[in-house]
Specification:
Blueprint lengths: L1 E4 L6 E4 L2 E4 L2 E4 L4 H6 L8 E7 L5 E7 L7 E7 L1 E8 L10 E7 L5 E4 L3 E7 L4 E7 L8 E3 L20 H4 L14
Antiparallel strand pairs: 1-2, 2-10, 3-4, 5-12, 6-11, 6-13, 7-10, 7-12, 8-9, 8-11
Length: 183
Amino acid sequence: MKLINTDIEGVYIIEPKVFGDHRGWFMEIYNKKKLAEQGLKVDFIQDNHSFSEKKGTLRGLHFQINPKAQAKLVRCTRGKILDVAVDIRVGSPTYKKWITVELSEENKKQLFIPKGFAHGFVTLTDNVEVQYKVDEYYFPENDRSIRYDDPDIGVNWGIDNPILSEKDAKAPLLKDSDNNFKY
């Protein structure tokens, strides 16, 4: 299990070691001890699983405000997604900066997103399944979203007319949200 730095401090790509033979393959998807030895110390308490039927489905940008913020470890177990993490910590040197990582059932990569970041993804294939771990339970009163196309952030999703939920279509801009993350 290899932890790879990205251009934004605290956001990591995790590449598992895959063992394969004529029967198929095996890999560890999470090992708390091995990740802690590489500096990533987090206690995950819940696993989530989503299914998106159509290519072009966009989910995000989502986060939970303090005191119920969530770190996430995201992987795509069926199909392919473009996963996005946006730094929304006011005062951070990378505030409003974002990274994208292609996650797929083929590459088996995972993305670790710390607290203080908004998260979203767009499906690049039909019939996509995404699974992710979080280190805090879901609290509806702390659940927030910001516009996927916020011009102050400028994420390049690679899509013009995404399929959105009503919640995501009505999400505010970051400047109009009650984001309470400080660097």
